[in-house]
Amino acid sequence: MKIEKNFFKELEEHSLLKSTLIVKYFGAWSAIISKNYRGKMAYIDLFAGKGEDDQGEISTPIQILEYCTKKEELAKRMYFLLNDMEHATSLKSRIDKIPDIETLNYPILTNYDIGKVSIDNLLPKGIQIPLCVFLDPFGYKVISDLLLRRILIEYRADCILFFNYNRINAAINNSIVEERMRDLFGVDNMNDIREECKSLCGTEKEEFIIREFCKRFTNCGVYIYYYKFKHPKINRTSHYIILFSHHKVAIKIMKDIMYTHSSTFTIDGVGSFSYDKFNDQTSEDYFTTAPIAYLKKDLLIRYTDKILTVKYICDEYTLTPFINKNVKQALKELENENLIIVTPSSQERRKNTMADKCKISFISPSTV
Fold first, then answer.
1. pLDDT at 284 over 70
2. Range of the domain at 330
């Protein structure tokens, strides 16, 4: 009985962390938009749920609505579209309990079956305001390549997708759901994906599936980053949270949020970008070598004979596992080893600092 209670407690922790990542990102996203844009903006959740779970924990859209009630300027400018086929009535009841809900533009509530409704009815063409879209379906049956492309290309929205790897992995070679897999991965290369998966297993198969899925959308002009959730009791991935954004700064913001919620860090401070209670320990097993040592070698090879700012270099590593702090750590170590020249030098800077505007010369000091 105790084991069962712990199991469900850990599943609940998954859900709470998922909401935390989304709400923190929404807060940062809306703050940046508000600073640079004075018009309307919107949050869309196509699988909004009933507002709270059976334990009384409030759902992601309710948390976002509550967040907006506490931000006067945001309350005036933010619009909401919340859809749930089964729970629209319960969702409305929970929304009405939010303190100061009347200060918001009341959410548009719909109960469309996402798998059957026309995309034009669900997401009309011509919307030209900043959008943050969250897709948290049950399983995979109603998420399609077409729906994501409408969101990413026509709406140019930031989109956060709950990708149920466990279910999708089981369905890849299941002929009963072949049509749904083609909807998800595209018709043109599904056969190749299925054949490749037959020859792979474990981590190699997982990396292949997530890579092939994300690759479908690189031609949408977006950057992509993700966070992994491992099953609480077995060494297996359950799902991912994937961010698609047209803006590199958005990826950097989400990376920083994901980093702080990594359950595993290497001894030199590189995060796993995962929630993994099964292997919850400080280790660097997920890197074949010490990651900062690898990063230092990569910097020296990549930028030989170049002079660049710290900010430029950090931006170049946005889509890698390294956050700005890791890149700056590697640069400071290279400076101490006399393998790069930094302007201003360490003697001219505050101790153990390296500002974004510092210039890095990847030239051997002996040749300068």
1. no
2. 291-367
